[in-house]
């Protein structure tokens, strides 16, 4: 049995890592939950990322306004999101056995972004 805290929030994001045959290790970020497939609003960068690259990546999605404060919800902690992207890229590079990392959704809650579901796929 697994029990964990319920995270509440209405904004969902996705972050991850993939080893692309053409570009090598890449980090991805975008809208999460069902919007990942429906809207395909996702940005990719080659890992490793510097802070400025991660911040530019976050600002690169079309729906970036969802990260701002609105309807009584606080603005997303962009620095924490950038740190997540940097860490995901570093983990993927440091662990050669990892083929993919998928954190979907990352829910924006009052305490910052929280990954509520994650998958790591290993090389075969």
What does the model show?
- The chain has a single domain (12-122), classed as D-amino Acid Aminotransferase, Chain A, domain 1 (2-Layer Sandwich).
- The chain starts with 11 loop residues before the first strand and ends with a strand.
- Strands 1, 2, 3, 4, 5 and 6 form a six-stranded antiparallel β-sheet that branches.
- It has helices at 35-39, 51-59, 78-94; strands spanning 12-20, 24-31, 42-46, 98-109, 112-115, 118-122.
- By secondary structure, it is α+β, with helices and mostly antiparallel strands.
- The chain has three helices and six strands, in the order E-E-H-E-H-H-E-E-E.
- Helix 2 packs across helix 3 (78-94).
Question: Care to give the gist of this entry?
Answer:
By secondary structure, the chain is of the alpha+beta class. It has helices at 35-39, 51-59, 78-94, and strands spanning 12-20, 24-31, 42-46, 98-109, 112-115, 118-122.
């Amino acid at each position: 049995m697994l029990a964990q805290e319920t995270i509440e929030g209405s904004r969902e994001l996705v972050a991850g890592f993939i080893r692309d045959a053409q570009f090598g290790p890449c980090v991805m970020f975008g809208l999460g939950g069902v919007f990942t497939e429906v809207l395909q609003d996702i940005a990719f960068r080659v890992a490793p990322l510097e802070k400025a690259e991660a911040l530019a990546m976050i600002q690169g999605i079309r729906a970036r306004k969802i990260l701002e404060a609105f309807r009584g919800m606080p603005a997303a902690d962009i620095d924490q999101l950038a740190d997540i992207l940097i860490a995901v890229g570093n983990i993927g590079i440091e662990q050669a056995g990892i083929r993919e990392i998928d954190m979907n959704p990352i829910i924006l809650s009052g305490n910052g972004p929280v990954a509520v579901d994650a998958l790591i796929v290993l090389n075969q």
